Structure formats: C-alpha cells, structure tokens
Amino acid sequence: MFQLTRKKRGRATTRAAAALLGVAGLITAGAVAAQASPASSSAASGPASVHSCSQAVAPGYATCFALKRTDKKAHAMAANGLPSGFGPADLDSAYSLPASGGSGQTVAIVDAQDDPNAESDLATYRSTYGLPACTTDNGCFKKIDQNGGSNYPTADQGWAGEISLDVDMVSAVCPDCHILLVEATSANMNDLGTAVNQAVSQGAKFVSNSYGGSEDGSEGQSDSTYFDHPGVAITASSGDGAYSAGTEYPASSQYVTAVGGTSLTKDSSSRGWSESVWGTSDTEGAGSGCSQDVAKPSWQTDTDCANRMVADVSAVADPATGVAVYQTYGGNGWAVYGGTSASSPIIASVYALAGTPGSNDVPASYPYAHTGNLNDVTSGSNGSCSPDYYCTAGQGYDGPTGLGTPNGLTAFTAGS
C-alpha cells in the first residue's frame, strides 16, 4: 500500500519541505489536507500561473499537476473567435491525429474530490469546438465515486480545475470516446489507487492519472495493488517540479506510461510545429529522473539509470503554450491551462485512438517498439543533472520528454 509516512529524499522539493513543516496541521485536517487553496507558481521567466492544487501536501497524499494561467482574462478569445489556448484542431495538427475516432472506447479520468459542474462545463467545451455531445443521457459521460456509486466526495475548487482540464483534453483528442470520471474520496494515495481499480473494473482500457507524490519505498506493493492491469493503458503525469523534484509516483510505476511535458509552438517547418522541453525554471517544468525504488522494466533501454527512468513519452504541458479549458466551479469560464496534467490525458486519449491494447500487454512498452513514429524532442532542459539526458533533451531518449511526442498513432498501437 501507499504509506502514510514518507522518507526524506536527497532532492527535496519545495512541496516536500512545506509538507514536512506543516504536516501536523495537514494531518489534523484529515482527508481534505491535500486540497488547500491554490499556491502561486514561483517561476519568474514564464507567464503568471497558479497551481490548481496546493503543492504542500501531507505524507501519503498526492497533488494534482494542473497549472492555470492568471494573465489570460476569462472568456478571452483568439483571433479566430475561439478561446485562447490550443484546442482540438491544434492538437490534431501538432500530433498528426485523426479528427475523429475512438468510437466504443472509454477513457477513464481519476482525480480526487468532486467537480459538481463537470458535465455542464464539458458540454460548453464540446459545443464551442463543434464536438458531438457527451452526456450522461446519451451514455457518453459517466461520473462515479471510487466505489462505483454516486456518493460523490466533497467538492473542491482546485481539483475541479484538474477535472476540467482532464475531461476537456480527452474530448479534444478523442471526441468519439466515452469519458468515465472516477472521483476519489480524497487525495490520499490509497483512495486514488482504489479509484484506478474501480475505473478498470468498469471496463476502461485507458486510464489517466494527473497527480503524484514523492517515492517512499512502497511502490512495489502499490504497483501490485493498484496499477498492475495487463491490457490497460495507464498514463501518469511526470510532475511539474522539474528535475529538482525527483521522480514522482505513480509516473515511476513499471506498469504506467510516464508522460513528460513540452513547450509547443507553431512554426514554418514542414510539420508546422516545434517542441522543446518544458522547463520554465529550476523548480517548474516537466518532471524527470531515475527512480530510487522501482526496478527498470525490460522494455526500457537507457543505460545510465539502473532503475525505472521517467518519462516514456510526452505532450504539450507548458502553460505558456497551454490549452483552452472551460471551468466554472472555482473558475470563471474559459482559461488557459498547462502542467503535465494536460499531457497525461492527451496521451491516454492517443492510446484510445490507436485501439484496444493486447490483453496481456503492458502498453507502456509500445512506444519503445516504434521509436521512429514519434516526434523526437531535441532541445531544452528542465534543470541541471548528470548524466545529461536525465534533464536535457537530445537525439533519441531523454528524461523530460522520453522518446518524444505523438506523430500519428503507430507508436501507441498493439502488435509491434
């Protein structure tokens, strides 16, 4: 199980230090400890943004990895009359994805707490971009608690932003997919893991997790309890604390596709887009690194990390090149979001477009069999490190962006 006490790590993060200082008060607050008011981003070189969820969490809890721009006015529209931030057509173009597909597939979103406006906000997002309706009534959208019922947890504005980001990204990338939102009772890792198991029991073959916490040595037991689901593509955000934060779990799980983050910009290249590592500062950017506890999966081939290396693949995560999201519970409508909370549901949805995984497969291995079918990210870094590839992009594999970003569906398809 996830443990309720965590070891102190060598690369302590701001979040971890705050948790140690405030742990007594947070534990007194109980299950809602991880849902404090959003904390301001400390990055000085990027646009103004805030963490949707507090980064000061008690041991045994996770935080979400959504970052919301604060320098974009609600309802601000781009020149094309659509909301500011990348939308479905942008993501399809950047990653060579079909504009439709995924019929019959279900992408599950696992988050903590409740967003009471999730379905109505989703309707606005989809209608704005001309996507087919996805509602409870037509069977496309389903919201459940971690036990499979409708006893939803306490509503929380911070996690509501995360939920809005997640369901909107599934809609953007896989508009014909069904969406299953599983709301954990709290951000306690055991509740979140229970929600993952519930998502799989409901039949989802694609499960996105946009949250994480520091490794504590209990990952092996947690893997076997919550994440060992052959034939299910499970994605997890690598984190937003850059290389200095150390590896996050469940991104470091051997059964999960660890999703890093990029800065995505339009350009005049033949692709029409360029990407670099998302690294706003030494403390804000895509997470990466060599796990301290998790053994290296057989399909991962970098040579300087004896254990599990994070990440595997990546997608847009920089709030400076962020995505459009519609949120009314804790928000005022349209906003621009980033964080690896964006890239995880994007990649889960790409897996869904690519088709059902093999029944005994670990889908995290698929990209390693198709390295030529990804956009290799070769510039940028998320900190200082040795060896260089732990934090710096280059040809082939690197920590912050993994093997690269989607270039069509082949790298995420079964039957290599």
TrEMBL record:
Leader peptide range in chain numbering: 1-33
Occurrences of domain Peptidase S53 (ranges): 85-416
SUPFAM superfamilies: Subtilisin-like (SSF52743)
Any one GO biological process: proteolysis
Signal among keywords: yes
Bias kind Polar residues: ranges: 270-283
GO molecular function, one term: tripeptidyl-peptidase activity
InterPro entries: Peptidase_S8/S53_dom_sf, Sedolisin_dom, Tripeptidyl-peptidase_I
UniProt keyword terms in alphabetical order: Signal
Official protein name in the record: Peptidase S8 and S53 subtilisin kexin sedolisin
